């Protein structure tokens, strides 16, 4: 028997007992020497991003001089390159030893693809061994957040649990820290309980193991279904609203699921009426807004959970003067000498700031102010008048008003009364004269006695004419020689009551 060949065969024979790599060397009668590799852990669970130490102890005959130690992975490919030379582990692995019989593989910044089996091998001058046997299996796990129930409605109880796919070898019962949108919350154990959950609880949550606060789990979004709330209506405008400009109304509401239809309402006659029902856009656009669009508005936002409405907003459309007009007071015929006021009125927003008065065929304005007062009007004021109304938006002229001033005349009633009085006076005077002549004619054809008797016997003789009759009789009784003398006699008229009221003739003299 060739003992040397037998010895080499046995030298490379490896027996695995209880996870220990053993090498038995038999050299004839020299007895048996044992070499083995013992791993500290058969499996390790480590946190993604952390650092892990994989260690082992090995033995060999004292006369073996160990020249090299190394660690390997990727056994399934049959490639056994040293990890320190593997580009995937570059700058992330280191070998450490405390004695000549131990070795530790340190891997930093663990990644999930680092999950595999790791084995140790050492070399001596005449042999190398250890890599063909079971090593240490590494599992790299990340933290995960689980939400229960998966679909959450406002008011329910919700539980958020933080965990790993395997039990951490170095920390089997970890304490967890919770974060919402990156902000740390009060420490909880494995679970974060929200009871009852509200819309404010919705958001992104993550967790970390205490002591590894910089190693967060991926964020898990907590979705809470709720009806619309905080609905707001707004106007997109950098300056005041001017008639003819484009104005956009926007309705915003916080809701889940989101609002997909909006309705706008306008206050008309004390009641709100919809004018844009079920609009799929959150905006309503007035492409050329008008003064008639002035008023109060609000929007309504519904979803499957409920409906909410905004507060009212006011649209105040500014516009220039509209339909200026001129009115006159008092109304009716305008007579010379009377007082007249012309007033200019116009609808405008903001209100008219300046009124200016013009008269046709007069180049310059005649007055400023809303009212044009004429205290004593004359015919020269007749003509066409109009006003100009102006605010900061625009100006507008009124239509012309024709002013006609009538000449002042005596009223028909006064003229009629005057004519009647004059006619009556003339009639009375004429009647009196006729009566006087008749009386004088009767006196000349009768005797003095008859006259005296008539005078004494009748009370209808008027003393008004006594001096006249006496004068005529004296003239008739004079001798002819005395006719050359001229005598002047004054005749006094006695006025009766009726004559005093209607006719008062002047004093007369007879020659």
From TrEMBL:
Residues 446-466 are annotated as: Disordered. The chain crosses the membrane at residues 415-436. Keywords: Membrane, Transmembrane, Transmembrane helix. SMART domains: IG (SM00409), IGc2 (SM00408). It comes from the Eukaryota. InterPro entries: Ig-like_dom, Ig-like_dom_sf, Ig-like_fold, Ig_CD22, Ig_sub, Ig_sub2, VCAM-1. Gene3D superfamilies: Immunoglobulins. Signal peptide: none annotated. GO terms for biological process: cell-cell adhesion. Most highly expressed siglec (sialic acid-binding immunoglobulin-like lectin) on B-cells that plays a role in various aspects of B-cell biology including differentiation, antigen presentation, and trafficking to bone marrow. Binds to alpha 2,6-linked sialic acid residues of surface molecules such as CD22 itself, CD45 and IgM in a cis configuration. Can also bind to ligands on other cells as an adhesion molecule in a trans configuration. Predominantly monomer of isoform CD22-beta. Also found as heterodimer of isoform CD22-beta and a shorter isoform. Interacts with PTPN6/SHP-1, LYN, SYK, PIK3R1/PIK3R2 and PLCG1 upon phosphorylation. Interacts with GRB2, INPP5D and SHC1 upon phosphorylation. May form a complex with INPP5D/SHIP, GRB2 and SHC1. Residues 136-223, 228-314, 324-400 form the Ig-like domain. SUPFAM superfamilies: Immunoglobulin (SSF48726). It holds the Pfam family Ig_2. This is B-cell receptor CD22. One of its GO terms (cellular component) is membrane.
């Amino acid at each position: 028997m060739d003992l040397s060949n037998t010895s080499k065969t046995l030298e490379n024979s490896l027996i695995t007992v209880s996870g220990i790599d053993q090498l038995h060397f038999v050299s004839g009668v020299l007895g048996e020497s044992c070499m083995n590799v013992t791993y500290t852990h058969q499996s390790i669970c480590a946190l993604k991003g952390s650092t892990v130490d994989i260690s082992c102890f090995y033995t060999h005959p004292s006369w073996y001089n160990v020249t090299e130690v190394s660690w390997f992975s990727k056994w399934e490919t049959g490639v056994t390159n040293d990890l320190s030379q593997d580009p995937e582990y570059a700058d992330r692995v280191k070998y450490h030893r405390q004695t000549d019989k131990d070795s530790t593989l340190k891997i930093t910044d663990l990644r999930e693809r680092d999950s595999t089996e790791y084995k140790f091998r050492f070399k001596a001058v005449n042999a190398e061994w250890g890599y063909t046997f079971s090593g240490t299996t590494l599992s790299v796990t990340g933290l995960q957040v689980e939400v229960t129930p998966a679909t959450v409605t406002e008011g329910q109880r919700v539980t958020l649990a933080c965990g790993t796919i395997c039990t951490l070898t170095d920390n089997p019962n970890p304490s967890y820290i919770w974060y919402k949108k990156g902000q740390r919350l009060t420490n909880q154990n494995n679970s974060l309980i929200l009871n009852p959950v509200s819309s404010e609880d919705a958001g992104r949550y993550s967790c970390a193991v205490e002591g590894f606060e910089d190693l967060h789990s991926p964020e898990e979004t907590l979705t809470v279904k709720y009806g619309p709330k905080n609905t707001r209506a707004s106007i997109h405008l950098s300056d005041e609203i001017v008639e003819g400009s484009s104005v956009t109304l926007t309705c915003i509401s916080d809701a889940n699921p989101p609002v997909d239809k909006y309705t706008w309402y306008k206050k008309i006659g004390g009641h709100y009426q919809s004018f844009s029902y079920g609009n799929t856009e959150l905006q309503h656009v007035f492409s050329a807004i008008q003064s008639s669009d002035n008023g109060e508005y609000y929007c309504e936002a519904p979803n499957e959970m409920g409906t909410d409405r905004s507060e009212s907003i006011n649209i105040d459309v500014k516009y220039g003067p509209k339909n200026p007009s001129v009115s006159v007071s008092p109304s009716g015929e305008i007579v010379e000498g009377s007082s007249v006021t012309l007033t200019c009125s116009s609808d405008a927003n903001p209100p008219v700031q300046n009124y200016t008065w013009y008269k046709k065929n007069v180049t310059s304005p005649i007055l400023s102010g809303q009212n044009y007062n004429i205290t004593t009007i004359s015919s020269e004021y007749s003509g066409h008048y109009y006003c100009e109304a102006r605010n900061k938006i625009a100006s507008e002229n009124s239509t012309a008003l024709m002013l006609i001033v009538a000449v002042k005349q005596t009223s028909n009633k006064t003229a009629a009364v005057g004519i009647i009085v004059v006619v009556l006076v003339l009639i009375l005077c004429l009647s009196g004269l006729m009566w006087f002549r008749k009386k004088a004619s009767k006196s000349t054809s009768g005797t003095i006695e008859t006259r005296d008797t008539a005078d004494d016997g009748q009370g209808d003789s008027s003393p008004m004419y006594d001096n006249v009759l006496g004068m005529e009789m004296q003239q008739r009784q004079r001798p002819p020689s005395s006719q050359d003398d001229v005598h002047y006699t004054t005749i006094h008229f006695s006025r009766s009551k009726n004559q005093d009221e209607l006719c008062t003739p002047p004093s007369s003299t007879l020659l």
